[in-house]
Structure formats: C-alpha cells, structure tokens
Specification:
With 270 residues, this protein is α/β, with parallel strands linked by helices. It folds into 2 domains: 85 residues, Rossmann fold, CATH 3.40.50; 127 residues, 3-Layer(aba) Sandwich (Rossmann fold). 44% of the residues lie in helices and 15% in strands. The strands form 2 sheets. A 5-stranded parallel sheet has the order 3-2-1-4-5, with helices on both faces. Strands 6, 7, 8, 9 and 10 form a 5-stranded mixed sheet that branches. Strand 4, helix 4 and strand 5 form a beta-alpha-beta unit. The longest helix is centred in the middle third of the chain and has 27 residues. It is globular and about 60 Å long. The termini are far apart. The model has no long low-confidence stretch (mean pLDDT 96).
Length: 270
C-alpha cells in the first residue's frame, strides 16, 4: 500500500480531477455533486456534497482518512468534520501560482510528487508557449483586446484572480483588473452596469457559474449596442467547469479556449 491517505473525500471538483490525472482515483471515496471532470467520476464515486453544503453523515459513513475542501466558503463543513475527528485539508488558492502550489501539495500527499511536478512543468511550459504566441502577434502589430469576463450576470460579477491572470496569459486585458484580487464574488459586483460600457470591451466572455450563457441577452442590454464586443459579435461562453475550477481545468482547457478567442480577435480586428 502506498503511503498517504487511502480514503479521500473531495468536496470540490479540482482535487478529484487531479487525483484521476495522477492515477490515484482508487483513493477517492466521495465527490462533489457538481463534478463533471472527469465525466466518469460521476458514475464511479458517491456524491456527498454541493459547494456550500455537504451530507456530513454520509461522509462520515465513508470513513475517510482525509477530506479535501476549497476556500473559506467551506469552513462550516470543514469545522463539522473536524469536530467529528476527520482530517480535513482546505486549500484557498486564488491565483495561478497558488493553484500550482495546491496541485503539488495534493500530489505529495498521495506519494506522487514526481509525477505531479512533471505534469505541473508541462502545464507551465504550455502557458509560456501561449505567452510567446501572443508576444509574436503583438510584435507583428496586433493589439491586445480589452476583455470583460462575466462570472455572473444578475448582478454582473467580474473575473476572479486566476481567471484574470489566465486571461492575461491568453492575450487579453481584463477591463476590471482592480477587482480581480477580491476573493469573494460580492466584492466583484459591478453595481453600475454602465461602467462596463464605459470600459468598451472588445470581447465579452461569460461563464455564469453553471447557468447557460445567453449572448443575445448580453447584446440586448441597455446602452450596449455600440460596445465593440456586441458590434462584432464577440460574445462567447466558456463552461464554468473549464475555467472557474481552480485546478487543472483552468490551467489547460480554460486558458486554451480563452487564447483561441483572443488570438482570433487579434488576427481579425487587432
């Protein structure tokens, strides 16, 4: 038996996906009901939590020797499990570097530090390659687009830090960079929708926390008809599981989708 926890409950998707990528899925005994990456995890593992709530009795019945959680928003769940004698590790990663740190720590805990570092190195190399592709476009005279990333629509909420950072890697400039450092969505609410218009985004990317993005609703907002993103039909969706998960998905599929959107704009309009 390999050292480290043998019966792990993952309260959010990113640790589940990472353990599968490391070939350690046999250690997982429970997952979040919101998990869609990898798809087969939903068929193979019991669903024991949402995001803000969890079935504590069901978790305890699984006899976990470790529970992985994410953020202060799961503090109450963590406290209940700790009081019941369960080992709980709650990560609070908000930046790209913090995501990489979390990935390494999880890999080390399941005796896969070497594999984890190798996979992290490949992800970092791809991010560097994307930066180089963007730099080449800029060197050829192309302009970086202004991008509004909308995490929620009513009220509008702008991008969290890792999304804003990855957008920068992908070649776009976040139109609300001053809000990205705010970890809580309520602190990234844009109370005056006209401010989005004033910042004149070339591209709007929506990822409405699991709700389907509706570009026609965005285009129909009062005062938006002259926004470049609307005029040129540059309204796109990236699924929340691909970009709002602070784990492997955002560092791979999420940033790749943003880069395709941004690079296409730069070649056509930049």
């Amino acid at each position: 038996m390999l050292p480290g926890p043998q019966r792990i409950v993952c309260l959010t998707e990113e640790t589940t996906e990472w353990l599968y990528l490391l070939g350690q899925e046999q250690r997982i005994v429970g997952i979040s009901g919101y998990t869609v990456r990898p798809r087969r995890a939903r068929d193979e593992k019991p669903k024991v939590s949402a995001f803000l709530t969890a079935k504590v009795d069901k978790i305890l019945a699984l006899k976990p020797d470790c529970v992985f959680g994410f953020s202060d928003l799961q503090a109450d769940i963590a406290a209940a499990l700790i009081r019941a004698g369960v080992q709980v590790t709650v990560f609070n990663q908000r930046s790209v570097d913090e995501i990489f740190s979390m990935l390494y720590q999880v890999a080390a805990m399941v005796s896969c530090a070497g594999d984890g570092l190798a996979r992290i190195a490949l992800m970092r190399q791809r991010l560097d390659a994307i930066r180089a592709e963007v730099a080449a476009l800029v060197a050829s005279g192309k302009r970086r687009p202004r991008v509004f990333f909308e995490e929620w629509d009513e009220p509008p909420i702008s991008a969290i830090r890792w999304v804003s950072e990855l957008l920068g890697v992908a070649g776009g400039d976040d139109v609300f960079p001053e809000l990205a450092a705010q970890s809580l969505g309520k602190h990234r609410i844009i109370a005056d929708g006209a401010e989005i218009v004033r910042r004149n985004p070339d591209i709007v990317i929506g990822s409405w926390c699991g709700k389907k993005f509706r570009p026609e609703k965005v285009a129909a907002r009062v005062g938006w008809q002259d926004v470049p993103a609307v005029c040129h039909g540059q309204l796109f969706e990236i699924k929340s599981a691909d970009i709002l998960q602070p784990g492997p998905a955002a560092l791979t599929d999420g940033v790749e989708q943003m880069h395709r959107i941004v690079a296409s704009w730069m070649k056509q309009y930049g």
